[in-house]
Every structure is written in C-alpha cells, then in structure tokens.
Amino acid sequence: MLKHFYLFSYPNDWQREGLAPFVLDDTLLHYISQRQDSGACHFWPSHKRVILGAMDKRLPYFEDAILSLEKAGYPPVVRTAGGLGVVDDPGVLNFSLLLANPHQKISIDGAYEIMLDLIRSWLAPYRLEVTHQEVPDSYCPGSYDLTVNGKKIAGLAQRRLSHAVGIMIYLSLSGKQEERGQLMRNFYTIGQGNEPIKGTYPAIDPSSMTSIENLLGLTITREQAIDQLISLISHRWPLQEGQMDWLDPDRLYKNWQKISRRQKGSKI
User: Fold this and answer.
1) Residue ranges per domain, the chain?
2) So what's the architecture of 4-262 in CATH?
C-alpha cells in the first residue's frame, strides 16, 4: 500500500529539454526505491522526435538511418527503458507511472497490468475495449501492445530498480499515425541495408496502428487526456503535488550526465 503518490510537473526551464523525462524517471525511481512507500507520475512535454531504444544503435547502417529521421524533421534521442524506437509529436501522449516495489513483489507482467487497467478505465466511457497482444508489424512491438479492434494504439516499456518499477507508455491520441509508421519503416529499411536482420527489428506495416482520434471520430486533446487520467490516478492512489526540490540535486546531475552519454557513441 502506497502512503504517498506524487504528480510531478516540469519546471519551465525543463520544458524544452528533450532528455528531461528520462532524467526525471531515473531520479524518481531512485527516490522511490529508497523510501519504499511512495509512487509518482509525470506527463512528458511533447517534442517532435523519435525516441530510440539501445538496440536501435546496433543497426549496421545506424548513422544513415538517423540521418533519414533528421531529414524528416524528427531528431532522435535514446531512452533508458527497454524496447525499440517510437515516434513522439504533439499527437502522442507519453507518461510514466513509478511505483515502490519492495522485494520485487510486482512482477514484470503485473506492472504492465497496472498501466493496462488504467488505460482500460480511461477509455471505457468512450466504449473502446482495450486488450493487450503483440502487434509484430508495428514499431516497438511487445507482448503488452495495447490494441483496439486489433489495431495498436499504445506501447509499454519498463525500467526496474531493486525496490521500484517504472512503467512508461506512449499513446497515439491524434495525428497521422500511418505516416509515423512509414517513418519508422523507412528508418529500419535504411538501418538494416540490403540484408534485413530477421527477428531483431520489426517489418513495419504502417496500417497496423491507429489513433484514438481515428477510432472515435473525434479528438481528445492532450490536456483533456491528462486531466482525465489524473482524475483516475487520484482514485487509485493518494495523489498530491510533488516538489522538484525534494530530489537530490547530485542525483539529478549524475543522471543527466549518464543519459547524455547514452546519446553518444555515434551521431547521437
């Protein structure tokens, strides 16, 4: 049972920092792991970019592939959680749930189920039935891809410490989802060159994914979605506002340096 659950907002000078969500994830996970009685959430600022996983950097023609993203106006960053690349833009909502997990009582699947239950509850009033199943021809496929009518609307990732777990979600709210899929298909086609690496990187079908807007025929704005999700979160946990000055400045700095180094080793 969590005694505290904090909603963290980004300071103004963090809003434009593309690495800020990853720094905050890691810093909060350490904070929660030490306390063991708390949880937190934060909704990421929107940036037009592609968020890559560490495995993406192993593509044989990685530099050519990221050049294709940059030419399309989607600069890449590399995240700390697992998985492969996902597209971020104003029509995509990313957020993190970070929970105390003493003695690893919450399993990997159990953590994903917490996020799945939240999204199901959010979309139930819209009469959208959310299931989870891998969509292998989507970008960043995984066993907890969230789907409606067989189309992927969201993907989940995790980051785990000894006594804390973070569950991160990207959710397609609106915008041209097939164009996002085409962008990532082109990225992997270029990155693999003439000899695709079977079983490692997805063969993307852009039509395998859709958005909430396409399903409903109406737009739920980022602000509306965030307000609705915060309301649901407040009914699950004792929600209160988190303060950035609670966090260890040395830990923040070290995490910023570590995540900045992760961007290096090639062109990022």
Assistant:
1) 4-262
2) 2-Layer Sandwich (3.30)
CA nearest to 132, candidates 81, 140, 117: 117
Residue 140 appears among annotated catalytic residues: yes
Q: Which two three-digit tokens encode residue 202?
A: 């997805």
Q: CA angle, corner 166, sides to 165 and 168, nearest 5?
A: 150
Query: What does pTM read for this prediction?
Result: 0.94
Please list the pLDDT of the chain residue by residue as tens digits (268 residues): 799 999 999 988 888 889 999 999 999 999 999 999 999 999 999 999 999 998 999 999 999 999 999 999 999 999 877 789 999 999 999 999 999 999 899 999 999 999 999 999 999 999 999 999 999 999 999 999 999 999 999 999 999 999 999 999 999 999 999 999 999 999 999 999 987 777 789 999 999 999 999 999 999 999 999 999 999 999 999 999 999 989 999 999 999 999 998 887 555 5
Q: Write down the catalytic residue from 20, 40, 123, 140.
A: 140
Q: Which amino acid is it at 225?
A: A
